[in-house]
Amino acid sequence: xxxxxxxxxxxxxxxxxxxxxxxxxxxxxxxxxxxxxxxxxxxxxxxxxxxxxxxxxxxxxxxxxxxxxxxxxxxxxxxxxxxxxxxxxxxxxxxxxxxxxxxxx
Length: 105
Ligand SMILES: Nc1ncnc2c1ncn2[C@@H]1O[C@H](COP(=O)(O)OP(=O)(O)OP(=O)(O)O)[C@@H](O)[C@H]1O
Ligand SMILES: [Mg+2]
Prior knowledge:
Elements: H1 13-26, E1 31-35, H2 42-45, H3 50-64, H4 74-81, E2 83-84, E3 89-93
Magnesium ion binds next to helix 1.
């Protein structure tokens, strides 16, 4: 199942996303949370802490700046760019790829 949470600024997207992710993970589902926000702070709501949440932002910035290779597959993305958050949620901070090449996950 894939769930996307969208809405107006300040409408509760991050809070809702975190509650959904933690609830799914606690119920035993394998749960991957992807923070695509331009100001990503889902890590805070997931209980990851400020320092690790900030670090994930710099990881995305490095990929966007071309300093880090893009993931070659979804599994690679989850492995290399994801971190384990409380309750068993795996979190990655990602962004849209403006000019995807063939095979890009
Ligand atoms: N169901 C709710 N009831 C009351 N307050 C809530 C609820 N959900 C979120 N809030 C509060 O509303 C504020 C905005 O929530 P949140 O950060 O989740 O929104 P957002 O849509 O992600 O915002 P942004 O657009 O800035 O990313 C926070 O202070 C949060 O604690
Ligand atoms: Mg938010």
